Structures
1.
Amino acid sequence: MSTKGKILITAGIVVVSAFVLSACMTIPSFQGPPPASDNVPSEELANISIPGVPAEAVPLFVENCSACHGPTGEGSGIAPPLNSEELRARLDDQAIAATITNGRPGTAMPAWGGRLSDEEIAALVALIRNWDQLDEEQLSQIAEQAEECAGPMGPMHPGMGPMMGGGCDSEGERGPWWMPGRP
């Protein structure tokens, strides 16, 4: 191969590498606290009653899970569905709790164990386990609130939930996935 050919190949590798590395620089990283948000799940969500599910489960889902898992748990391009019969059949409560607590290495699922209490994680597990008990009106109410909390870009855009820098955190804090420059 000629010297010119080697230079072109090397230049191509450098360009591709620079592109890949620049994409990696946009991967969420652990950053400082954000400004407070006014987008907090409404108290009405705590009134959604599901037998065997603590009242705080639905607001917790909207605040912490809906940005990635979809407004009604249907999943998205970055996270699997939580409203799945297959998931409920495949995973027991302990496995679901472990996933929430420890995250899933190699995926966008962060560890929530340092942010949510054991009781809050148990409430989310109960919601996932009993998802099929939600009726259409309840799902519509959850979806509406999740879309409001996700911000102007919508719930399916990475970077819009509280862990991702968006607005449903009732304490006005962004989680470890907040990226500088994100609204």
2.
Amino acid sequence: MSAPGVSAPGAGAPGTAEPAARTSTAAAGVAPADSRTAGAPGAGAVTLRPMRWWDIAPVMELELELFPEDAWSAGMFWSELADTHPGGTRHFTVATAPDGAIVGYAGLMAVAGEGDVQTIAVDVRHQGSGLGAALLADLIREAARRGCAELLLEVRVDNPRAQRLYERFGFEPVGIRRGYYQPADVDALVMRLDHPSIEPKDLKETRHG
């Protein structure tokens, strides 16, 4: 990632084909940070597992629904998954309902001790269930496992709900990337979590627990 606050070429920067990091507005809620499941409204537990190539088609259905202005292409997902092998720089997770339907997904890039949240998305029918928090906790754990000293992300400045989710897990604003989200020309707020933990804490749960 380029230095925070600088609108330099990079993921989603104007003039590049790289995917922009995003969080769907629905990706919020409370879930136990040390769990591999999250509550889902009226449907029992949702399970997190590694994303595979055969998940791309259903993921794309959610992608186009949740990010109509700056959706990734199927080719971008293929490219990301190609680097999820052992020793690779990517980690992608999907959330599946008991019937097998994919109701969320998330991705991490980790290079040279620096992690970057690539995407977090939750089906609108599962908002408020804690699934967004569970997916974020999964990425934080993986960043810690890979020895990342910091975890960075970009979030749309017009998505306060996602910003509050990140703040709950200790992320702090560190800069603005102008025109990061194209073609909508929306700025990104850059946020950073120092020293990701293998046991991420939801500060909202800590305060009220």
3.
Amino acid sequence: MRQLVYIFIALTYLSSCDCNQNVKGTILDSNTKEPIENVDVYNKNKTWIKTKTDKKGHFELSNVSGGLTCPPMTIIIEHKEYKKIETEIESCGQKEILLSKKIIEQKDTLTYKQAMKNIRGIFENYKTNEESIESEDNKYIMTTSLNSLQSVTDKNDLELLINIWNYYDPTDYSCRKEIYKILLQNKTISINAVKDRMKHKMNWENEDLSGTEFKNLLEQLEHKK
């Protein structure tokens, strides 16, 4: 009988134990892999337990949970420029989380700087992954950003557009039409930019293939009246 009493007391004590949940994470832009600051992160089940990411995209949340074991913490992640997501992190665990930007509505007006940042980020991410697959969101953002550009004369930005024209080739997508339209706005400057790009061939480039594509672009620009 005495043993049963001890067992009952022990079970009662264990069931009343609290678990200190602690989770950490880093939030990055899915395209640029850069940290995102001021992202709202909160506990789904206790929304008053919340925090914001710092300049390095880091966050940490703590919670006291009843039970014999510490369950994973479900968190909600929100930022005005990114898609809201929900994810789980094991107690005392750490997780790297990628956020995708919201699809830009056609009615939104992009600044030149915003458009070029979008274009550069998507292309750099595409090169890094070395895949021919691209998300529908990124295709949409690429097209929308290119269409927002009325004129490009900056040497580095022109080189970026020329490289995208030649090398950004996801499955079932092409933005050559949009880039060609931009290059025509300042045809002389664009022609010189293509010639300059042809002179500075990358070490890894196949001279026959890349050279032919750049020549085709140059001929199109030179013969367009």
